[in-house]
Amino acid sequence: MTAKELRTMYVNFFKERGHAEIPSASLLPENDPTVLFTIAGMHPLMPYLLGEKHPAGKRLTDVQKCVRTVDIDEVGDDMHLTFFEMLGNWSLGDYFKEESIAMSYDFLTNYLHIPPERLAVTVFEGDETEPADLEAERIWMAQGLKQEQVYRYGREENWWGPAGQTGPCGPDTEIFYDMGKPKCGPGCGPACKCGKYVEIWNNVFMQYNKTADGKFEVLKQKNVDTGMGMERVLTIFNGKTNVYDTELFLPVMTRLNEFLEEAGRQMPIRERRIVCEHIRAISFILVDPRKITPSNTEQGYIVRRLIRRVIRLLKQAELGSAHLCQLAEITIGQYEETYPELGESHGFILEQLQKEYVLFSKTLDEGLKKAGRYLENVGKSGVLDGELAFKLYDTYGFPIEFTVELAQERGVEVDMEGFHARFREHQEKSRQGAAGKFAGGLADHSEQTARLHTATHLLNGALRAVLGEEVSQRGSNITAQRLRFDFSFGRKVTGEELAQVEKIVNEAIEKKIDVVLEEMTPREAYAAGAIGVFSEKYGERVKVYTIPGYSKEICGGPHAQNTGELGSFRILKEEASSAGVRRIKAVIGN
Hints:
By secondary structure, this protein is α+β, with helices and mostly antiparallel strands. Helix content is 42%, strand content 21%. The strands form 4 sheets. Strands 1, 2, 3, 4, 5, 6, 7, 8 and 9 form a 9-stranded mixed sheet that branches. The chain has a 4-stranded antiparallel sheet with strand order 12-13-18-17, with helices on one face. The chain has a 3-stranded antiparallel sheet with strand order 14-15-16. The chain is globular. The chain starts with a helix and ends with a strand.
């Protein structure tokens, strides 16, 4: 089975069962300061999981592009990826556990023809707060699974949410494929990391609301959110043991092997996998509609980190920018039929890779000089401090193996224990940061953020009125305290222009205008004068929020009901964000 066939089979399966297909959202979450990238299919749907009405209805399905930075250091093993496609289906207050589990089992066994005996599932075992999810266990057994295929685990493994201190939450049931390896010990099960079990699907049952006093109330709108890893399922269906032996990576891996053979160089298999995986992730991030480019902050920092990791590995093998661009072209060619934006931005991808290659080559040279000084000053101990070895890794992108080679050339040892201790600390901080970002992002849909969201619409309209209609939104980021709005513009906005923009927004607030919500087709929306960031990515019906006389935008919400709720509007700062993009930070208040 090809990736295209799997995507089509999955979406059609759920469409036949009453689900509306929705398009993949941007890799950059809209109006969310707490995550760098869209990391799950549920992320763009949180307003609807929290109760807003979705234009497409109560049953949805899609193929969502995702990036998870927490897995960067795991890339190179059999299954972990930074960029991946998540197959998802949702029930927004419609069906619940019985139908969700039955559909999942039906798809896996009757459509993918996975033998039932190769499946294992996990359910919530219960604790002092909430009971065990015996209902999910019973439903799985009714499908035909045996008792020994059903495992019970605690909150860490089988409970989702709430995203913040309060909000929707509930048990989940995770579905695993048994790779056929022997058990590593008596306690081996799906939670074990030995590789016997690979998670392929997760069904989250949002059935409770956690209140501020710690109580769990049954939700009026119970939701189902599921996510299946496309690459993992493709690997398993085709009888492979790792994602790199599938059609998704074989072409680029084959070409890389040819380059290495031509150069007479070797590269460890894990590093070859990293090169191929990162090039795919880089390509998708660069072509996102929100125009991310390599930089030293936020998403730009991540894409720069990925590019530089690839460059370093290629340079070690004496491969240059031409090789890098050729590998990217193979990836683009593989995906452009499914994701046309890759072909449309082909030149932009190659341009960014070439720029980074030149820039990083200088940094790498500086790193070699710094490493030389460190090694010259080790003193009588003859050992390079682990903290310095980690600094070479973190600042200059030197893998520990590279540093060890440099040290050996000078007869110096490396404090590996110190390095690994510092590295583990770094990984833990990264994981905690990623977990915290995900949690916060799904939690903050308060009245204040809804008002700030409305303020971004007024700001967008005011900027277009003052600076011209060529101004377009490039991104927005909202916390409960302030808004941040990125827009295309080629120069610094003057103080007089900012004052005029601020005046227009406050004028709209003073008029206390009702915010009008309508649902229509994208064509009807544009005919009515609405603007939107990602026109080609909308579904069959969209929400249009209108503030008469000031703004009309396609948007998912949430919003204030009246502009008067905003109180007032004040611009704090205007600055450059990246080439051709400006950034405004602003606040509202009474």
